[in-house]
Amino acid sequence: MSLMQLTSSPVGSLVRFIVIFALWYRTMALAKLPPNASSVPAVLAFGDSIVDPGNNNNIKTLIKCNFPPYGKDFQGGNPTGRFCNGKIPSDLIAEQLGIKEYLPAYLDPNLKSSDLVTGVCFASGASGYDPLTPKITSVLSLSTQLDMFREYIGKLKGIVGESRTNYILSNSLYLVVAGSDDIANTYFVAHARILQYDIPSYTDLMVNSASNFVKELYNLGARRVAVLGAPPIGCVPSQRTLAGGLTRKCSEKYNYAARLFNSKLSKELDSLGHNLSDTRIVYIDVYTPLLDIIENYQKYGYKVMDRGCCGTGKLEVAVLCNPLDATCSNASEYVFWDSYHPTEGVYRKLVNYVLEKYIDRLF
Amino acid sequence: MRLVLRRNQQSAIRSERDMEGIEGNSSRYSLKPSRICNEDVLICVDVDPQCLVEMKGATGPNGRPLTRLDSIKQAIVLFVNAKLTINPEHRFAFATLSNTLVSWVRKEFSSEIESTLAAMRVLSASSSSSTTAGQPDLTHLFRLAAHEAKKSRLQGRILRVILFYCRSSERPKHQWPVNQKLFTLDVMYLHDKPGPDNCPQEVYDTLVEALEHVSEYEGYILESGQGLARVLFRHVLILLSHPQQRCIQEYVDIPKSIAKKPPQVEPMATEDSAPISSQ
């Protein structure tokens, strides 16, 4: 009613136009967004290394990257702990929505109160839906990330009050990114679940965990949740090396597991979207667009697809991608930055694709 | 006969008595507490020209082939990172082995990964023109280690030497007192595939002999002739095990074999798994 009044009156229209213009002035890409999306107060991200901006920096794990050459193209060469040469998807989404340039880590020691209001990231590199996945790598589990989120909510109430907090929680965009490490690390490389689960039943385990996670987010106030599916994990350079045979092809069994998980996840999220009231829960397909970039990399302007920019590019990730290694001279020619993670350029293409395709369903 | 029966009866009585006190616990097992010392690790790299042999199928981003020495450096960085993640109190120093002597790369033991990276940057192979032919002598390395080990012990620490050895034919020699076991020696042996021109097995046997001769705790020796960096990394991660917490090497079963697979699991292509060398 209040919104309707605002839009129907001349003054309301003028105010809205000014707001939109101001946001457009700051970020050109914002012009493509529908009206509701331009008033998103915050982005909150959960999951694994694809969106971890440095939460792993101060925990006892090998899965961290707060050292060169990581961050080579970020803030003039600042290795913040992002698993990339530049911005990661959560940064790019916050940028495209016109909220802020970077989505900081919740565990960043330099975090300010103003950062909390516009959103933070709870993700931890090498985490996953299977509780065993973060145990193997000693990183923060999804349930720990929920605990951090609960703590965050308490802090937010202290900063802006309960009423404003509830508004922020119910209107913000939530990103959930996980599944890669469950399939690649826990199931196939470590063989940690292979005696108890075959691929169909293991993907059931993952989907059930994802569903419980989203329900818990809903209980805590989330109403706009984007859950990213698994990428074609068999095609990342390290898994080509480990499981792609002599010619380092994409591992088809890894990709089969990813596709199976994705189809189940999509159905489950649709079901949740119907059953939970007043909510938008959207499955985001990243498998198809990333596979397209990998298979047709030259068409997208890339020169190297089966190796990362760091070191030999066939194995190095986290502490093995370090200042001792040489890096390629131009990361924008590479699909992958290290043996596991895409470059910022690829992430940017994916984020633009995702926003164009799914933004209407989230807002 | 009577003595044996009596002992058994006493055991049975004691067992029953224990069970009376603790219901539901039919078996009890406890580990005696023991102090695990922080480690000083002296990493010694053989810089014979054979350490410049190229690894298989690996090139850097500049097109330069990856050498054994490059892979050893990365393996050391991985090892130190992992070791410090387990316990930030471990310390590391670095040396090189050539034919004539052992040279310090970084003499002060340090717990900083930056110290390791700096040492790896300056580490380089010895040029063949300055090398005299002959067997490398490990005696000097052992003397250095024994000297440092005494200092470590005064601080309640234990010393371990990790030797990366790269020669496929030249057996190292050593002279060392039988009863002096002040440190533990681990060996990572990288060699060419056996052929008419070399015999890595003899070198391996000599290294085993040296290791058993000097080691205070169970020393491990691992070898690879495959020329694959990731196999080297996997071996080096086995060396993360603390000398005071080790089983004897022939019992090490890493990676564990999948003893029984459910019938519905699709037959998996055999992934590369490095066999563990047994003494």
From TrEMBL, chain A:
A Pfam family hit? Lipase_GDSL
- What does UniProt give as the signal peptide span? none
Superkingdom = Eukaryota
Q: Which CDD domains match?
A: SGNH_plant_lipase_like (cd01837)
> Which InterPro entries did the record assign?
GDSL, GDSL_lipolytic_enzyme, SGNH_hydro_sf, SGNH_plant_lipase-like
Q: Name one GO molecular function term.
A: hydrolase activity, acting on ester bonds
Family affiliation: Belongs to the 'GDSL' lipolytic enzyme family.
Which PANTHER family does the annotation name? GDSL ESTERASE/LIPASE EXL3, GDSL ESTERASE_LIPASE EXL3
Protein's UniProt name: GDSL esterase/lipase EXL3
What is this organism's lineage? Eukaryota, Viridiplantae, Streptophyta, Embryophyta, Tracheophyta
Name the encoding gene, please: LOC100775689
TrEMBL record, chain B:
Descriptive protein name: BRISC and BRCA1-A complex member 1
Q: Which UniProt keywords apply?
A: Cell cycle, Cell division, Chromatin regulator, Cytoplasm, DNA damage, DNA repair, Mitosis, Nucleus, Ubl conjugation pathway
Lineage runs: Eukaryota, Viridiplantae, Streptophyta, Embryophyta, Tracheophyta
Q: Which GO terms describe its biological process?
A: cell division; chromatin organization; DNA repair; positive regulation of DNA repair
Subcellular localization is given as: Cytoplasm; Nucleus
Q: Which family does it belong to?
A: Belongs to the BABAM1 family.
GO cellular component terms listed in the entry, alphabetical order: BRISC complex; cytoplasm
User: What is the species of this protein?
Assistant: Glycine soja
